[in-house]
Amino acid sequence: MKKLFVVSAPSGTGKTTLNDRLMLEHSGIEKAVSHTTRKPRAGEVDSQSYHFVTNDIFQSMIDNGEMLEWANVFGNFYGTSHKEIERLFGKDHDVLLEIDVQGCQSIIRRRPSTVTVFILPPSVETLWNRLEQRGTDPLNIRWRRFLEAKHEIEAGYIYEHFIVNDDFERAYSELKSIILDGKHSSISHKEGLDICRKLMAEYQTSPLLQNLKAKFGDDLGLLNV
Ligand code: ADP
Ligand code: 5GP
Fold it and tell me: Residue 98 CA: which ligand 2 atom is closest?
């Protein structure tokens, strides 16, 4: 019986880097290619990073019942098609879904045996720095992702396993032990929730966030850089 995994993380935490390394080094598991209405970033290849589609095509896929799950994230649609999951299970591979918390919620309802992993940044400051250092998004998009990360962290309780992506190699070996060896994360569920609470508190108190708010305001719609 092939397994389904969900790996989520607030944008900028490092989930794509961790998952891509796992896909590169282990052939029995594949990452599902989602559909999205987001525009490709530099270096992203259609049908590899995502299937990049128009709003009309995405809507028709929803209407035709082609999506296992879908969500609106940062103003764009993202979804996993039934066809993609069948394609990968057909290759006799385990499947990893790199999707947001709303998508994870739908998957837990539909396939309760799914193994779910939430990756967390060591601090909100580190999260902001990684979004900046990645250099793929303009300031208004980075700001939006950074503010929405708080809501994702609030929903962290739905996940079974938690990993803090501080040291990359350590986080990677933890991810491997959960996905390849079926172990529990070294952090318990309760400890994971405590880390989520600590990060949410940082959103209230971090001087970085206060400075950014003073500069840009927290109305995402007004920030048009
Ligand atoms: P996500 O997919 O969660 O949005 P990415 O995988 O794109 O995040 O990573 C965001 C940035 O952080 C990238 O520039 C990546 O190289 C960097 N990064 C990832 N993990 C670490 C880590 N443990 N330490 C330092 N930088 C990291
Ligand atoms: P990005 O624009 O950075 O590639 O992705 C933004 C967010 O959308 C991330 O949290 C990512 O995990 C999520 N995402 C990507 N594909 C899917 C999908 O198929 N379904 C859902 N629900 N979320 C997705």
Answer: 12
Ligand nearest to the CA of 127: 1
Quick one: DSSP state of residue 157? G
**pLDDT for 218:** 64
pTM of the predicted structure, to 2 decimals:
0.94
Residue nearest to atom 5 of ligand 1 (CA): 14
Ligand 2: centre distance to CA 99 (Å): 5
Residue type, 111: R
Q: Which helix (H) or strand (E) holds 107?
A: helix 101-110
Any ligand 2 atom below 6 A from CB of 73: yes
H or E element that contains 51: strand 51-52
CA-nearest residue for atom 21, ligand 2, is: 99
pLDDT tens-digit profile of 137-193? 888 889 889 999 999 999 999 999 999 999 999 999 999 999 999 999 999 999 999
Which CATH architecture describes the domain 4-33+93-220? 3-Layer(aba) Sandwich (3.40)
CA-closest residue to ligand 1 atom 26: 130
